[in-house]
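Section: protein folds

Sequence with per-residue tokens
===
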Amino acid sequence: MHDDTPQPQGELPLGLDTAPPAVAVPGKSRRLLTFLAGNRRQILAMGLTGACLLWGSWTTHKLLGLEQRVTTIRKVALADLVREYVQAEARSGAAPDQITAETGAYLKALNLAVARHAAQGEVLLLSNAVVAGDVPDITATIRDETYASLAKPQGSAAVPSPASPSTQMQQFFDAKGADHGSGK
């Protein structure tokens, strides 16, 4: 049952053909392909190492750039600015529709003034968020910038004076509370 007849050279005993004959590759290309096939893991490891080194240097550069950026902390009394404006508008005697439009414009201008300071790298805290410390107050600057970007108010809704005695007294009582003294 054993067939000892020689098989032709291109055939295998079970009817399977051998691999197709290799395409002739010139000497240099063949050596390059052999090198790449044999060192595939090492080449991949070198590529990943290079990518990690590039990423690490980029990250370090960005972190050092953040360290060099100057951030200043400032405080702003936004509630006082809005309260002053609303009181001035209430005394103006203007029509409600006009007051609504002017208040909307004021709030937009106030938001833009605050955004300009934030874009310059300043961290703005509300004045009631500052418990203690030497944090510069830029409320007057924000007030001036806001009113400078608006059209001049009409009637008695003029820019409130920042240092009037009644305003200072009201701010004192708001900050300290009215129950600190009996007045006797």
Observations:
- Residues 155-161, 180-184 have pLDDT under 50 and may be disordered.
- The beta strands are 72-76, 122-126.
- The radius of gyration is 40 Å.
